Amino acid sequence: MRVAIAGAGAVGRSIAGELLENGHEVLLIDKAPTAISVERVPMAEWLLADACEITSLDEAALQRCNVVIAATGDDKVNLVVSLLAKTEYGVPRVVARVNNPKNEWLFNESWGVDVAVSTPRLMSALVEEAVSVGDLVRLLRFSHGDANLVELTLPEESALAGIQVGDVEWPEDTSLVTIIRGTRVLTPSTEDSLEAGDELLFVAAQAREEQLEDLLSARRTDAAR
């Protein structure tokens, strides 16, 4: 997979390093000469250019990229890069960094953004996840379809503990994508049983989040114990 990253600061370089370790091709783009640190990510391609300029993106051959990540520290730049990537080059997947939470509402499909990543939101989500078993935590917002990546740690008293995934009547527009059980990451099958303490990751429509939380947090009745 070929990935272009606009913004070669600490965030962009960190993302590039992870992607390269996973075998992907990475192009880092930055207009600041001081940001071009080839020795820090030597396996990446580097381009000294303004990612908001069409001529720069032509030089980057953005049309060959499977993913574009707008990772600069300027929300205006990230929005422009996202819009150009999607509308001018037809990039299938555009991920944008949100620096100011007040601007998060702008990062949607109208600006070409498929996934908006807000660091403050992620940090607060991690804090909430660490202290709240049984509460739904929103980790990421996907622009298309008004869906979110959400997490819930199954409480000990949940009515679903011990129930097979295929026997659960999940809400519409909801998909269980991963079960994290201790150090294991499981791709759920219909035969897998849910266990108390499982960290469950879902892609769910925002309108279904409350229904999903109620389902997962529902307590067993005395008769069912």
TrEMBL record:
Q: Which domain of life is it from?
A: Bacteria
The record, for PROSITE patterns, names: RCK_C, RCK_N
Taking every annotated instance into account, which residue ranges of this chain make up the domain RCK N-terminal?
Answer: 1-117
One Pfam family it belongs to: TrkA_C
From the Swiss-Prot or TrEMBL record, give the protein name: Trk system potassium uptake protein TrkA
Phylogenetic classification of the source organism: Bacteria, Bacillati, Actinomycetota, Actinomycetes, Kitasatosporales
Q: Which UniProt keywords apply?
A: Ion transport, NAD, Potassium, Potassium transport, Transport
Q: What SUPFAM superfamilies does the database record attribute to this sequence?
A: NAD(P)-binding Rossmann-fold domains (SSF51735), TrkA C-terminal domain-like (SSF116726)
RCK C-terminal domain: which residues?
Answer: 137-218
